[in-house]
Design brief:
25 helices, 747 residues, five-stranded antiparallel sheet
Length: 747
Amino acid sequence: MKHPEDDNELFNRLEAEMAEEAQGDVVDLGKARSARTESASSQPDRTPDASADSKPTESADPGEWESDDSRPTLVDPAAPTQSGPGLIDRIRDSKRLDVVPVWAKSAAEFGEAMKWLAGHAGHTIAFHAVRVPFLYVPKLVWRSPRGLVNTLGRVGRWAVDAEGEPLRQAEARRENSEVYLKLSRQRDRRVRLRTIVTVLGALASLAVLLYLVYGASPMTQVIAGVLAALGLGLAGAPADAPLATRAVVKTEVQKLSSDIVVKAMASIGIGQIASAVAKGQDGIKFVSPITREGPGWRADIDLPLGVTVADVADRRARLASGLRRPLGCVWPDADPGEHEGRLILWVGDRDLSKTGIVKWQLANARRHDVFKRVPFGLDPRGRAQSVPLIQHNVLIGSQPGQGKTASVRVLACGAALDPSVELWLHENKGTGDLDALACVSHRFVSGIDDESIKYAADSLKLLREEVMRRAAAIKKLPRDLCPDKRITRQIADKRSLKLWPLLAVFDECQNLFAHSTYGKQAGEDAEFIIKLGRALGVILVLATQRPDKDSLPTGISGNVSIRFCLRVAGQVENDMILGTSAYKNGVRATAFRPEIDAGNGYLGGATPLPTVVRTAYLDDPATDAIAQRALALRKAEGTLSGLALGEESEATPVPSYDLLADVAAVVPVSEERVWNERIASRLAELRPEVYGGWKGENVTSALKPHGIKTTGVAGTTGDGARTTRRGIVRADLTKAIAERDENRGAA
């Protein structure tokens, strides 16, 4: 009888041979067993008591054979003969780095870099040029006597070979007479030669001095004296007091290294990383070297198995503490082209909130194609971010005063620069933030009263009818003109079809959807438009400061494709804007700091993954200038309609009041500084139908687009207590009014 071990060995050998012949092919185990049986039957029995009855059958499973010690012998698949993919496969799968940096490919980013470089060089030149006659030259003259003494001393030490004295004394202390005598003879030769050179140099200097005093012209004497004073001044400069001061003081930012990153990652409370570091390992793997990217450092990291980027983003504050950097400098992101454990850690040189006002790329543009993406702002790495409007709807949410309306204004201005776009603007806050664009709007309203709310609700009814009309119109279009049954640039340019893009903005939409009379129907109409109007060229932009189920129906928040969330208070508000589980996945707009991070928010839907963006900012004069260019474009192409042509002048409740003028009316000239809460109460008395219910923060957000900043104002409360609260300076108000009137007059 054969031993089972022999059959096992033969079976393994056959499988290995077959795997060697056909790498990657599927092995038929039935054929393998048949071959094993035929081979085994041709071999003589190795034991004297072998019999045919004891031979295993073809149906026997090799994995169930047992050895002499009754333990199962497992048969593993044969290992491949090659250790991994071939060279060509490894090269093909490798990631190619950019030949030209990304910032150099973008004309806007390259222009910004060159502009900064020119500004830096110009500042440095101007800084030193101003100080040359008034600081640097007097310093040199003052130091010239000391420079003369230093120069004579250096010449004297050189002449007597003073630099070799320490070496000679050291050899004397070692009592090394032979070396000492050699050094002494060398010193004697040097001193003789250097003495001759010094005397000749002194005589030549004396001759030059006598010539300058008695034989040279006055101009030559002045030039020689200035050069001598400057040269001696440089020679007399102390080592710890350089002549020139720094034109730019560089902020020292510690270079990001692998050791710093490993220590920081170990401190954020992820068990897999902390335990690996405790055992002397890194816990994380650096996919590529840490490099500079924009104004910061980038590290590509593979996290341990089972750890995701969301786990790290959830501990962003701890990570910032471990890196010893401000929270606004540390931005952990995922790599959309890799697995869920690939972390891109970007650490900026300065806080994102301190980057200042972001200039809009289209601020000076003559026109823009809305079928292309609209520039929106910058991400923490300084890369431009944009938003697609066609085939999308936009939802923007935040707490009051965080930059929500400013974001709406950027999108509305981007659409206004395309003369084919029909604008329906509804600003249900009543502060006039979008008043400048009324001149190019088909429908426009600004107000919080019932009449304004009804007007906005009527707009949604009309939009619903428009969506149904467009659906029927597109259905009739020939397939070669509209193969995908959606609006294209070619279709939009055919004015006879009346299928041009239509952008409808509803700012402070919670006042509409939560209205007791018009809110329910408005919510149903908006949901219908969002679901069906996307492909038909109807775009809704909704902005709210109260994202809850009552003021923002779930049918709306659940179907919007692009979301921008600035600072919000909690998880519920965060997920209402950014989508369910956004907070759980580490996308948390609650991490933004009130006022400090105003303008910073998470942008979702416009990029593969939610991205932090600092929005561009357009003040009132800039918006006015854009509106006038948009008006000129529409007049030239004959695309003005509705209110812009005066067709709805009677039916449209366009506000007849002026916010800045109203504030100036309630703040007397004698009151140089005033609290915002007092302005709010006075405005409510002046126009209760417009400013009723306003508080100090409403005044702050309403005045901000006009360039009026709030500051701490000391005052006395009603009970006589002295305190400091947020307020404005009346001089800033009058300056803003003057600049606005001047810009409007120029336009």
